[in-house]
Amino acid sequence: MKKKISLVLVFMMVFAVFASYSLANPQSIPNGPWIQPDQNVSLSSLLQPEDVEQRLLDMERRSKGRMETEIIGYSSGYEWPIYVAKFGEADNDNPKILIDTQIHGNEPLGTEAVMHLMQTLAMSNNKEVRDILDNVTVWFIPMLNADGATIFEIEDYGDAQTRQNIQYWTPEEWGLDADTDAPWYHVSQTWRGTPGYDINRDAHPHLDFDLAVHSDQHSPCNEDENWGGQPGFYVTPEARALRDVFKELEPDLYINHHHRGSNIESEENPELTTLQILGQFVPLDREDTIVDNGETYTYTLTEESLDLSRQVNALVYQKLQKGNSLFGQITKYPRVEDFYGGYGLPGTTLGSFSMNDTAVMLYETRGQSTRDTGQKANGRYIRQSLDGIYETLLGFATGEVYDIDPSFYEDEIPEAGPRITVPDPGQGF
């Protein structure tokens, strides 16, 4: 169901949408595809929350017991049900993997990829699939931010989605004064015309964190100040749902899927990257401590879980580079230390979960949204994520992932190249 609204595109919105066009340096070398200035981009082919629900329930019915679905919560605004799809039990001895996609509502291709993968796991009798099902427990949250994913229309612009959910800041709910400032990752007005949170900043290493109990921890600092590394507060139902699934599964690996703008591989090779990956989000020497009911809890990143993160990222890089691959331009995601003065992102789900003895992997598919690349490119990027996640599951099933030298991650995967904007239309595409 497409939500329809009519909004006046005020100056701030116009700037946010078109700044990359007006500020772009002249470029003609980077390969595309690029959106043409007069090109109409429809999002109608993307899965919507009701589509995800219908397909999940159909898969479960046809899986003959392989797959179990469960509603783990409801979105804050539209109250869409949020589903987890389970392949395997949490209490077995297999390696356990948790995968979520569309934590940012306008980053949809991960959802498309894992829905394809789940269908294969639910119905295929291929030997590799059977090996995965026998030897790996994998749970999927295929659309965490259903509010943001819900397509709406902007007058004179067209289809749109939002990064944030739909949710007001309610300080009294958490025992705070009514005039207490919102967390820095809350936006008072999104494109949709509603307030909302960046769910991917609403996480804390202490998985039982409750702002109503730990209200002294609330820090309404601005974004520039907070990049130094303050955790979030689990104030969104979506983040709490993810947190609860994480606690239930206690995964060995957590995969978080996103979109990013466009980067070239390097100054020497101006080919556009198709994927950026990353396996570390906090430094090894960081310790986060919190007191809860008189007990002191300390969270840190372990070398063991970091090595597994490196192995998983290296495996995906190697598999997607193999042979005459369409996915040749893969780099690390820009090191957070370059931007934030260190690996200081415990407020992201990847950062918080990695401080709970879990390996992590970030997928950043090219294109800040599908508007950046267009429909023709989407199939390629969906296939890239599908192949990478499938190879990860297979690598755990066969044990291949454990044979990879963790140093490959640092030594062989290229660092991120320069970020670029949409080329100047006058320079060609």
Automatic annotation (TrEMBL):
PANTHER family: PROTEASE FAMILY M14 CARBOXYPEPTIDASE A,B, SLL0236 PROTEIN. One of its GO terms (molecular function) is zinc ion binding. Residues 1-24 form the signal peptide. Residues 50-296 form the Peptidase M14 domain. GO terms for biological process: proteolysis. The lineage of its organism: Bacteria, Bacillati, Bacillota, Clostridia, Eubacteriales. The keyword Repeat does not apply. Its cofactor is Zn(2+). InterPro entries: CARBOXYPEPT_ZN_1, Peptidase_M14. GO terms for cellular component: extracellular space. This is Peptidase M14 domain-containing protein. It comes from Isachenkonia alkalipeptolytica. Belongs to the peptidase M14 family. The keyword Metal-binding applies. PROSITE patterns: CARBOXYPEPT_ZN_1. Keywords: Hydrolase, Metal-binding, Metalloprotease, Protease, Signal, Zinc. SMART domains: Zn_pept.
